[in-house]
Design brief:
By secondary structure, this protein is mainly beta. Helices cover about 10% and strands about 50% of the residues.
Amino acid sequence: MKKFFVLACSALILTTSCLKNSGSPGSSEATYPGKVVVKNISTEEVTYSENDASITVQIPNMLEPKFDVIFNDIKFATMMPKLNIEFEGLPFVATVSEDETTLNHIFNVKNVVPTIGGVPYDKYKVDSIKGCIGRPVTIDFWMSSKDQMVHFTTATSNEN
């Protein structure tokens, strides 16, 4: 019963809060501040990090289990300009945490082409993007073509 209550409340909150002005009925949006760390896949050396990063998660249609993840005003290398990088239409599965207090949106998608300003960038295709939008939010993606792995989290050093 507790699981059902958490799911029902979460669905109600998502469908009634944070509606975008241009979104369709039943859309939802939330922005999460956090930290991003970029590592070289081969050497595991940190090549870039940002403690003041944020992502926005948009669910354009509550009837379809897909969302868009936007890395806001972010860069993944020192010489790169800050951009809004979007991953669109990522399918997710909603689950309830073991302690039955949090609704988690779990995703793991292969071969995703990011967009910048609505323009797809095939040469920056992401091999895999996976994560959990819950408490905390974590997202990892790999670009073997650039030998980079990007990790975003809202977790502080005190959280697991």
